[in-house]
Amino acid sequence: MDMINFKKNEIFEADVIDLTHEGQGVVKIEHFPFFVDNALPGERIMMRVLKVGKSFGFGRVEQFLTQSEHRVNGVNLDYLRTGIADFGHLSYEEQLKFKQKQVCQLLTKTAHKEKFPVSNVIPADRTLAYRNKAQVPVRDIDGLLTTGFFRKNSHTLIPVENFYIQAPEIDAVILFLRDEFRKITVSSYDEKTRQGWLRNIVVRKAYYSSEIMITLVVTADKLPKGTDRLLSALTEKFPNIKSVQLNINADTGSFILGKKFKVLYGQGYITDTMLGKTFQISAPAFYQVNTEQAEKLYQIAYDFADLKATDVVIDAYSGIGTIGIGMADKVHQIYGMEVIPEAVSDAKHNARLNNLSNTHYEVGTAEAILPKWLKAGIKPDIVFVDPPRKGLDETFIRAASETQARAIIYISCNPATFARDVVRFEEQGYQLDKVQPVDLFPQTHHIELVANFIKTSAC
Ligand SMILES: C[S@@+](CC[C@H](N)C(=O)[O-])C[C@H]1O[C@@H](n2cnc3c(N)ncnc32)[C@H](O)[C@@H]1O
């Protein structure tokens, strides 16, 4: 069949037949796929061609001829364009079904587990304003320091004042800082020239304690004139601010934070509680952005593990120790490892804060430390893993399987790498038993799940 020679700005009438995992509608014209923002399956649209590649293109909705019954109307399109809320136009019930389907499809496709009984996604009670953390880029637009979010797959700043899914007080702090920085004519970072001072504003607001920590990511630690007055005004307006820090990052890479921090006000951390335990959280350390849902996630992980008072437990990728400390008084001993030194200091401090004497934390990669612990004779009964999006290293999976632990509890924020790791664990004699997604990220495509593997054969 001859392929249509699509031209930019041409308009076609078409059905939206699917949704990508990042929330774009899929339209096929003569078998050629186009990805379209703000288009839902079941809708018929007039689509304008924006860009055509070799095997797919991008389009824009010019007009809706019919709309899906699952559409949420009136959502600011910037939330879709930036990915702040790339599923904001889909009803929450459908978002949950879509996420469950994604997990099933990945288990079928990657792990060849047809019809694995993935449980229904545990919904969030709070589907907006739930995030306890914002990382907002700062750039100039028409000569004016502006805060917002990058358009998806680009570094073009779209101004945003109401971030919709994060705690409103975080938005208020960002706007206050933006306006004050404008007054003292602070320069914002320019990626092309690598000039300018302020790159990002990172704000965390602890969910239960309401303590706020602000990190200003800047290119040099010299403070602009007027910063002292600005800090006084800021902390007077928001008395729950406990920490303001500079983070110096003059690199061109894509990491938001540099290595060096300097405290400008208060202390270098905030404190919050999770499942009744107290946690100190430093600026470079990971902390789940949806506290209420993370508590549900961790509780399910503990239930899957069927903890016993005699259990020796490994908490791999331990961050500030939340998972291990949350169960430490129910088991014999916790061993945790984590690459970020400040997070490990937090974990050690957090164990003391919670009067625990049965935890041990080390700085290093899970794949290097676990084999070392095995050699030293540590024999865990349960291994918890909570890796970043790239999932587990093969060396780690082999070592975790060699432990002969009775179960491995896997918390994943990326079902694609999780499905890959399912295959590896099953090759090593651990059978996937249960998969429970929990919605930590309403209005977005992100999926979190907890799974357990049980030992089936001696390795
Ligand atoms: C998803 S977070 C989980 C943290 C913690 N379990 C929690 O619930 O807050 C993943 C953690 O793994 C750490 N990390 C990344 N790569 C690692 C590695 N190779 N070995 C150990 N920790 C790693 C990150 O710094 C981060 O703290």
Automatic annotation (TrEMBL):
BP GO terms, sorted: rRNA base methylation
Active site: residue positions: 413, 413 (nucleophile)
InterPro entries assigned: MeTrfase_TrmA_AS, MeTrfase_TrmA_CS, NA-bd_OB-fold, SAM-dependent_MTases_sf, TRAM_dom, U5_MeTrfase_fam
One Gene Ontology molecular-function label: rRNA (uridine-C5-)-methyltransferase activity
Positions that bind S-adenosyl-L-methionine: 288, 317, 338, 386
Keyword set includes S-adenosyl-L-methionine: yes
EC number from the UniProt entry: 2.1.1.190
Keywords attached to this entry: Methyltransferase, S-adenosyl-L-methionine, Transferase
Top EC class, one word: transferase
Protein's UniProt keywords contain Hydrolase: no
Gene3D superfamilies found in the cross-reference section: 2.40.50.1070, Nucleic acid-binding proteins, Vaccinia Virus protein VP39
One matching Pfam family: tRNA_U5-meth_tr
SUPFAM superfamilies reported for this sequence: Nucleic acid-binding proteins, S-adenosyl-L-methionine-dependent methyltransferases
Family recorded in the similarity comment: Belongs to the class I-like SAM-binding methyltransferase superfamily. RNA M5U methyltransferase family.
Official protein name in the record: 23S rRNA (Uracil(1939)-C(5))-methyltransferase RlmD
Organism: Lactococcus protaetiae
Taxon lineage: Bacteria, Bacillati, Bacillota, Bacilli, Lactobacillales
